[in-house]
Amino acid sequence: MQNRVLLIEDDDELRELLARYLTNQGFTVREAANGRDGLALALGQDCDIVVLDIMLPDINGLDVLRELRGQTHLPVILLTARGDETDRIVGFEVGADDYIPKPCNPRELVARLQALLRRIAWDQKSDVDATRTYGDLRVEPGQRRIYQDDAPLELTATEYEVLQVLLAHAGSVVRKTDLMQWALGRRLEAYDRTLDMHISNLRKKLGNDDPLRIETVRGLGYSYRVPAA
């Protein structure tokens, strides 16, 4: 499993603490104390995953994320202020894969990193010829890409995971608890809107002309309906 982490955090004490802990857990850690340096390292392909603080001294973390999403599909976990739901929502809209509120527990950060990297590594080991088609969508696990009418959907790593789980169970209801575990690798907690935001983003990217393509089944979860030919 690849484990090169880029930690973009301006708080020297927190960054050093997290870097030491991640290193002790087997990660190779690159550090950046501001957005410009972090962006340059990320675009230089020196990492497999990014941990990005929103509050940075030069470039806002959300702007760094926007720049990244314009050029790369690197998975990104945001560090956000505890209780600041607005930043989390905007972060998901821009393309974050997950978030952890600050001050964060280093063990939780490791668990989130490992879960996300594990899912990516699993797909990369899949048979590159195991293409699956669902109406106008085509899933190519070896590339970790999903195409709509032969055009690639620009999905984050987590959006890809959520959609491919829904597609694998097309026509059936996938409970939110199961979807959270299978796609994000963690348990669904009360008031956690992470999954809802990923579903909202997927609906936008798939086109709002078919609102029932991903149907909300109240009290249960979500169901993907393959559009009629």
Automatic annotation (TrEMBL):
Subcellular location: Cytoplasm
Alphabetic keyword roster: Cytoplasm, DNA-binding, Phosphoprotein, Transcription, Transcription regulation, Two-component regulatory system
A GO BP annotation: regulation of DNA-templated transcription
InterPro entries with a match to the protein in the record: CheY-like_superfamily, OmpR/PhoB-type_DNA-bd, Sig_transdc_resp-reg_receiver, WalR-like, WH-like_DNA-bd_sf
Domain Response regulatory: 4-117
Keyword Methyltransferase in record: no
Location (main, coarse): cytoplasm
Keyword Membrane recorded: no
Domain of life of the native organism: Bacteria
Record domain OmpR/PhoB-type: where: 129-226
Residues where 4-aspartylphosphate is found: 53
Recorded GO MF terms: phosphorelay response regulator activity; transcription cis-regulatory region binding
GO cellular component, one term: protein-DNA complex
DNA-binding region, residue intervals: 129-226
Xref: PANTHER family: REGULATOR OF RPOS, TRANSCRIPTIONAL REGULATORY PROTEIN CPXR
UniProt-recorded name of the protein: DNA-binding response regulator
